[in-house]
Amino acid sequence: MKVDYILKNAKIFTSNKNNLQATSLVVKDGKFVYVGDEAGLSDYEGEVIDLGGKFILPGLIDSHVHITTGVGFEYTDLGVFVLCPTKKECMDFMADYIKKNPGLKRYRFAMSRASLNGEDITKEELDAICPNAELLLLEAEVHSNWVNSKILAAHGITDDTPDPVPGLAYFVRKDGHITGNSYETASWPMLFDGINDLTDEQISTAILRWLDNSIKVGVCGVFDAGFPEHNGVNERCYAFLRELDKQGKLPVYVDGCYVLTQPRKMKEALEGVKRFREEFNTEHMKVHTLKIFMDGTLKIETAAMVTPYEDTGVTGATAFNAEQVAEILKELNEAGLDLHVHTVGEAASRVVLDGVELAKKELGDKYRVKVTSAHLWVQDDADLDRFAKLGVTANFTPWWHAGNGGPNPIEYWPDFIGEKRAHSMFRCKTIWDSGALVTWSSDEVFYGDFKNWSPYLAMEVGMTRWINEKTDASELQRTVAAFPPASERMSIEEMILGYTINGAKQLGIEATKGSIEAGKDADFLVFDKDMLTAEHEGFSFNKPAEVYFGGKRMNEK
Ligand SMILES: [Zn+2]
């Protein structure tokens, strides 16, 4: 058989469990036609390349990214970071800055809620230092903010405005009056106002920057988890990717979604995801998934818990209950669509698991929806084996597994969730060993220098649960020790499988991608060194020497 090229004398990790290692592969018309040892090459005729023992992996699949939120942040000034130890000093800092920089339409600042030491900030206090312009103070987690009266008025938000999701996404009130502080979905439109004015050029410039990075690191497929409350921006970004694909210029497989954040928008979202499926259906750009925001984040205690938070005794709330999840699943089942859910706290993943259980009971053999529960910071012990039992994919973001709570996360987390839970976060190995499908992701919303988007950073921290001076990460992310428990560390093989074949299964593309197997798309990466035996510390510095998508070399020579 005449073929495009033959690679031999390589060390290939195929991610195909029946044939995990090989030394040769053959590519014809963008697909692998042979994978095995050199003895099998005699049937093929074409250019032969001796790789001299180089290492090959399948193209990587990042199973939860935010291409579109990244575009939003690319053009959203987060403001001046206020790094003061007390509320009074923070207020003085902002007042001083405003005085020294007069005439702006909007002043933007960011700070960690921890700086307030339990106090809060009101719109009256912000009005006092900024009476004539807009003022937005973003909380560092990006899931809440404080604004002055000018911004509330511009958005028509009054004491009578209903909360999008009581207990999760809401306007903080005191004696029935809104204070100017809001959480989650209630806060995002104020942060991103102006985002609908982005030009096509701004959108394409940002996405091309993202694509360029993906090619460099060898990410050949992604699930895009969308831009909450901004499906319109999503649509414009996807339209650009679709047009690139039509021109044969999209070198990454993009699986998108439509985002649902609050129950009252359920009907609109179901229609939206069906419309997206019709609109975005080219070779490398598809949509077949509804994405739901089930809860928030741990640091501002909007993640939903089974056991209450240690310091405040609250549990947070989920956006939907199990019955509603089951209802949504029935609709998705009928339409042939899938579900992906943001689930940080133990109650959020439980509500998904309960909803799947209910839907399966009702639909029996007809049930077919692929469900992914993403983030999974904390799980209740009773739920750990239910991912496998119910066929729910567990998606983790391994670069957080160093603790993601400042330099000393093991001191940081007990205040929020107590010692026991603080010592058993991110239980990916337990869930993997229970037989569930586990996938990995970067889940960063800022493009920046793309360091947090690196699969090699994720692989390092997934293996070590530590970001130290040997890691290719910002100094601010370093931690003083490995984050427990050590039993949740993964092996390099598990990191690779989660980033390849498991990701393909989550996206529903395992028939054509995710492993180096005859008949599949020739997406593969060539490394100068053996990744299976590479040092775990400093693994983040790795990068492929050559990246192939559909058999074609994509990165620069
Ligand atoms: Zn996300």
Describe this structure in words.
It contains 17 helices and 25 strands. By secondary structure, it is of the alpha/beta class. Strands 8, 15, 16, 17, 18, 19, 20, 21 and 22 form a nine-stranded mixed β-sheet that branches. Strands 3-2-7-23-24-25 form a six-stranded mixed β-sheet, covered by helices on one side. A six-stranded mixed β-sheet has the order 9-10-11-12-14-13. The longest helix is centred in the middle third of the chain and has 18 residues, at 200-217. The protein binds zinc ion. Zinc ion is lined by residues 64, 66, 225, 443.
Sum this structure up briefly.
This protein is 30% helix and 22% strand. Bound molecules: zinc ion.
Oligomer category: single chain
Q: Mean pLDDT across all residues, rounded?
A: 96
Helix content: 25-40%
Number of helices: 17
The first-to-last residue Cα distance is: 28 Å
Ligands in the structure? zinc ion
How would you sum up the global shape?
Answer: globular
- Give the strand content: 15-25%
Query: How can the largest sheet be summarized?
Result: 9 strands, mixed
Structure class: alpha/beta
Radius of gyration: 24 Å
| Residue runs with pLDDT of under 50 for 5 or more positions | none
Counting DSSP E segments of at least 2 residues, the number of strands comes to: 25
